[in-house]
Design a protein that fits this description.
77% helix, mainly alpha
Length: 232
């Protein structure tokens, strides 16, 4: 039997207030009690799922998101959260199912296209990933991570010219410069543009802090820089 609307809302707000204070375990306990007393409260189930992800209980979170969607099949936040949680635990098949459902419901949902693209990239379906990252960028043209991941997909697919373009776009938009310089350098090498690659390897190396001297990527960068210098 459902709780009275006002009482359910008050209990939900109390739980959310605890979560805002970062008292996630207490918030989770309150939400657990609420969904037991008010099983059809889809907002409470969705919130409970989100807190469970924070508490790293992804299995139970998935159950709550799925129950939320059973109650409200068009509740896009729960669909996205379920897809993201499946992706997080490495269940790419189910992640793909729910991301596809998301973009079918909301074709202009950039987050849905980005998530679906990530699934395709993880499962080495690079052409499909490229297509979905493109849709994501049409909807959100300043998303740095979409450019980075699109560049990685082009690189894996052997499209080095397009990889260079997208890594440069990520840099122009102020992304994680260190990773972008490394990825750009690798793509430039594939085009035999060794002088430009060396410049980007140098920029990458210059950004490494003193406490990161043993970073594996640093050794790789030095090795590639020396190789590039022998090519021009």
């Amino acid at each position: 039997m459902a709780l009275e609307s006002a009482k359910a809302e008050a209990r939900l707000n109390q739980a959310l207030d605890e979560c805002r204070k970062k008292n996630f375990e207490k918030g989770a306990d309150l939400l657990d009690a609420l969904v037991n007393d008010d099983p059809n409260n889809y907002k409470a189930r969705n919130a409970y799922g989100k807190v469970l992800v924070i508490l790293k209980d992804e299995e139970t979170a998935i159950e709550q998101f799925k129950k939320t969607i059973e109650l409200r099949p068009d509740f896009s936040e729960a669909i996205i959260k379920l897809a993201q949680t499946y992706y997080k635990v490495g269940n790419y098949a189910d992640a793909r199912t729910y991301y596809q459902r998301m973009v079918e419901y909301e074709p202009k949902n950039a987050e849905g296209h980005f998530g679906l693209a990530n699934v395709y990239r993880k499962t080495e379906k690079y052409k499909e990933a490229i297509q979905e990252y493109g849709k994501s960028l049409e909807l959100n043209p300043k998303d740095v991570q979409s450019y980075v991941n699109l560049g990685l997909s082009h690189y894996a697919n052997g499209d080095y010219h397009d990889a260079v373009y997208n890594f440069k776009m990520a840099l122009e938009l102020g992304g994680d410069n260190r990773k972008a310089f490394m990825n750009l350098a690798l793509a430039l090498e594939k085009q035999d543009r060794y002088s430009e690659a060396a410049e980007n390897w140098t920029r990458f190396i210059d950004m490494i802090g003193e406490n990161e001297a043993k970073l594996p990527e640093l050794e790789l960068a030095i090795e590639h820089l020396q190789l590039c210098k022998t090519k021009f």
